[in-house]
Amino acid sequence: MKTLLPTSTAGSLPKPSWLAQPETLWSPWKLQGDELREGKQDALRLSLQEQQQAGIDIVGDGEQSRQHFVTTFIEHLSGVDFAQRETVRIRNRYDASVPTVVGEVSRQKPVFVDDAKFLRAQTTQPIKWALPGPMTMIDTLYDGHYKSREKLAWEFAKILNQEAKELEAAGVDIIQFDEPAFNVFFDEVNDWGIATLERAREGLKCETAVHICYGYGIKANTEWKKTLGSEWRQYEEIFPKLQKSNIDIISLECHNSRVPMELLELIRGKKVMVGAIDVATNTIETPEEVAATLRKALQFVDADKLCPCTNCGMAPLSRQVALGKLKALNAGAEIVRKELTGL
Ligand SMILES: [Zn+2]
Hints:
This protein is α/β, with parallel strands linked by helices. It has helices spanning 33-53, 71-75, 113-122, 134-138, 149-169, 186-200, 219-226, 234-244, 287-298, 319-341, and strands at residues 78-90, 94-106, 128-132, 142-143, 174-178, 207-212, 249-253, 271-275, 306-309. InterPro entries: Met_Synth_C/arc (IPR002629), Met_Synthase_cat (IPR016456), UROD/MetE-like_sf (IPR038071). Its cofactor is Zn(2+).
């Protein structure tokens, strides 16, 4: 692996059209039973190969075996009834029909561990595995049992910790918790959000990351972004406490966003996955555009702590666009690497 500016992705990548309807979230599977199991593994292999072709250093599964980054994990737990739906407001942004917590939540068996072992067997490169964070999980459910967002988050943190420990044992190098909800509920993040995240990573020896973004490039998110004004200072509310946390890496949306780059100063000392690819547009960045974002970030992130990344997952994009963006990410990182090493 290149030691300077190792590239990675936020997580999800497009699925092949024979596995699920492209450019759609929560797209239903096109296969069933054994065919589906095999299809997911084949898609994982393809996704890995595309990341490798594009020169990505820290690779992942492209989330090929899950329909959605939050829902699929919860589907494997007991205590949540997916048939009993209630309409709730997700991240204060849009209404959605969600499953109901009907009893104590628990994990009866591993969720992604076999998939992670499969990925591990395919490559010797460092691998990163994404899990939803506790706060983002509770925000996509109706809680008819605990009646307390905080209490449910602590329960999920315990479950995530069980899964994370087994992922680590399966050879995962970086475990990432996706917490887009951190960009919305600042008081809760500071009161117990970061604490539950630390509970989820308790006892792990591998590196841990938290991904905090402004969401996929779907309409509800782009409309919400329009209401945020000319400067997005959400990160400012949570960075001081995050800087003091034991999470190693912070994954952020930085490209084409209105986040003032100087906010990164607040997490100085942490590794930062700098989003240098916009996932809300089909326009493929030029390497020079990627390099410009990385150079800006380098004013506030030490070079040995900067990992070029995508703003968010690319599941809703076409495969061709996503691959082009991965290549641009690597080419842009290469420009800046050469500048840094003087080669
Ligand atoms: Zn994201």
